[in-house]
Amino acid sequence: MLSHSRVKFLRSLQTKKHRDQEKAFLVEGEKLVNEILLPDNNSNYYATEVFGLESWEEANQDWIRSKTVTFTRINSKQLNQISSQTSPNKVIALVKQNTTNITASPGYDGLILAFDKLQDPGNLGTIIRLADWFGVSRIVLSKDSVDHLNSKVIQASMGSFFRIPVIKCELLNWLKSKPKDLKVFGAILDAPSLYTTELNKDGVILLGNESSGIREEIMPLLTQAISIPKYSIYPPGPESLNVGTATGIILSEFKRRLA
């Protein structure tokens, strides 16, 4: 059973302030917890404690006997107390970052997704899943983007969170420091069509804020502006696409032509 102080600590991790202070966060639900507990999990994150209902404990006796991570049985009331979900699912893991595997600055190899002031956690979770599907090497976020350890991000990623490196940095400085031959493709309304633009197998695909787009000071760093043409038959049609939807369309075209 959990003490009152332990419940209070776990609940505090629902806020970014305490996640940053403790360098820890919670992962909820059987699918995500089972993924972080896989013996061949090569992510930059690892579970330190697991809190589960008796039903989860009974179904995972082999893992519990291995004693690789501390397990504490909790009841439904305590599960509800520490969970951020409306309908919690049996088990929660306390997860920390393996800082020895994290570099101070993200690299430039492979196909990279970058986002300027991305705000919606559900969108970021979807984007992480798309990045996993389409073989993106990493995701780079501006420092004023949504917290990638937000529980909504992790839930929406459906496990891909543990496979795709997500790094926050000063995006402007990172783009200025890139190799000269690395192209930056920026998604801009009214730019040349994605479907008629010469694309690269490696490079940066940059998308902006959901409402305001890419900020002005970053625009000169783009190698090529691209857009997803609108084919609406009912003018004027929608003003823009959801950033997660746009990311999926752009990645699909890059891979269709270059994979």
Strand order, main sheet: write it out. Answer: 7-6-5-9-8-10
Major β-sheet annotation: 6 strands, parallel
Rg on CA atoms, Å: 20 Å
> Helix/strand-derived class?
alpha/beta
Classify the beta-strand content into a percent band.
Answer: 15-25%
- CATH homologous superfamily heading of the largest domain: SPOUT methyltransferase, trefoil knot domain
Low-confidence stretches: none
CATH topology of the largest domain: Alpha/beta knot
Mean pLDDT score, rounded?
Answer: 92
How many strands?
10
N-to-C terminal Cα separation, in Å? Answer: 51 Å
Q: How many separate helices?
A: 10
CATH architecture of the largest domain: 3-Layer(aba) Sandwich
Shape: elongated
Give the topology string: H per helix, E per strand: HHEHEHHEHEEHEHEHEEEH
CATH class of the largest domain: Alpha Beta
Helix content: 25-40%
- Our count of domains comes out at 2
